[in-house]
Amino acid sequence: AAAVPVVDVLELTENHLDLVMLTSVTPTVEAARVFGARLAQLHDAGAPAFGAPPPGWDGDGFIGRFPLVNLSFATWGQFYAQARLAPVAQALDLPPGARKDLDQLSARLCSGALDDDDGPARLHGDLWAGNVMWTPDGAVLIDPAAHGGHRETDLAMLALFGLPHLDAVVDGYQDVHRLHPGWRERTSVHQLFPVAVHAALFGGGYVAQTHALLRQCASG
Predict the structure, then answer these.
(1) What is the C-alpha separation between 136 and 121, in angstroms, rounded?
(2) Could you give the angle at the alpha carbon of 71 between the alpha carbons of 85 and 115, nearest 5°?
(3) Of 98, 123, 195, 201, which one has the fewest beta carbons inside 10 Å?
(4) CA distances (Å), 172 to each of 5, 30, 31, in order?
(5) Radius of gyration of the chain measured on its C-alpha atoms
(6) Is 126 a catalytic site residue?
(7) Model confidence at 1, in pLDDT bands (50, 70, 90)?
(8) Structure confidence by residue, pLDDT tens digits, 13-31
(9) Are 28 and 16 a contacting pair, CB within 8 Å?
(10) Are 174 and 44 in contact (CB under 8 A)?
(11) Please, are residues 4 and 38 in contact by the beta-carbon 8 Å criterion?
(12) What's the N-to-C CA distance of the chain in angstroms?
């Protein structure tokens, strides 16, 4: 099966980006299942290291307006703790209780407790529902923050803001690549960074949601 496509770029300048126009349709269960299978193919394409940028790109990236440091790590746990959670926590200026929870979670991540035998997956990196365009030819992805990461991260992002027919997406995914047992319980760990980014950019209820996720992840 082919990997899920990403929209073609027509032109890029300092002040605008032109993309191929996509026609939107209402997603079906079958389209969702095919998307899941193609997403697994994208992930299985792999990456040189956790945190590695896409081929041909040497600089850092962005998720929204928040910068993403592209540094290569041998393990996912160290990458996530040091190149994702640490920078966004610094931007948030966490209170002592939340900082303690972060330190506890970061220690677990750096110890390898949440690592597995999967190599780095080629991630979209900002795969919330709004970046999945449903077209007559199936799902097309827009606005990637591509890097080498953990495949569960993209799936956790799809769940965070509610993708239609997510169960069918997961079924299609697992037809191609079976997920490790307990992946659903790890979803909150993968959702912590994007929620924290929202807290840093927009404040409001995202701050309390970040603190709640930190407590949940630190105790788990």
Answers:
(1) 27
(2) 60
(3) 201
(4) 16, 9, 10
(5) 17
(6) yes
(7) low
(8) 988 889 999 999 999 999 9
(9) no
(10) no
(11) yes
(12) 36
Tokens found for residue 89:
């926590």
- Judged on CB neighbours under 10 Å (0-12, 13-18, 19+), 56 is exposed
Beta strands in 111-150 (DSSP E): 121-123, 132-135, 138-141, 147-149
Distance of alpha carbon 143 from alpha carbon 65, whole angstroms? 12
Given the residues 101, 126, 143, 154, select the one marked as catalytic.
Answer: 126
pTM score above 0.85: yes
pLDDT value of residue 211: 96
Q: How far is residue 71 from each of residues 115, 193, 212, measured CA to CA in Å?
A: 18, 16, 28
Q: CA 183, CA 118: separation in Å to the nearest integer?
A: 13
Residue type, 127: L
CB 188, CB 214: distance < 8 Å: no
* Helix, strand, coil percent content, the chain, rounded in steps of 5: 45, 15, 40
Query: Taking the alpha carbons of 3, 109, 75, 88 in that order, is the dihedral positive or negative?
Result: positive
CA distance 143 to 138: 17
